[in-house]
Design brief:
Blueprint: E1 2-3, H1 5-11, H2 16-23, H3 27-35, H4 42-52, H5 56-59, E2 60-61
Antiparallel strand pairs: 1-2
GO molecular function: DNA binding
Protein name: Putative transcriptional regulator
Keywords: DNA-binding
Length: about 70
């Protein structure tokens, strides 16, 4: 699964730590999501999309084979 999390954070000048605090996870979790090493739960994806006021599909993109 690809994501545009880093791009969306940059648009808001938001650090990984700030996003992590806002959604209740560790900075390492945000880092791992951005790197593609961790797929967030539905609840976490919804919390993240709420922060950016975007749909989940605008942030997280399925790749062929997902």
């Amino acid at each position: 699964m690809k994501n545009k999390l880093k791009v969306e954070r940059a648009k808001l000048d938001m650090t990984q730590q700030h996003l992590a605090d806002a959604v209740g996870v560790s900075r390492q979790t945000i880092n791992s999501i951005e790197a593609g090493g961790y797929t967030p739960s539905t609840i976490l994806a919804l919390k993240i999309s709420g922060i950016f006021k975007l749909s989940v599909n605008e942030i997280f993109l399925l790749e062929e084979g997902d």
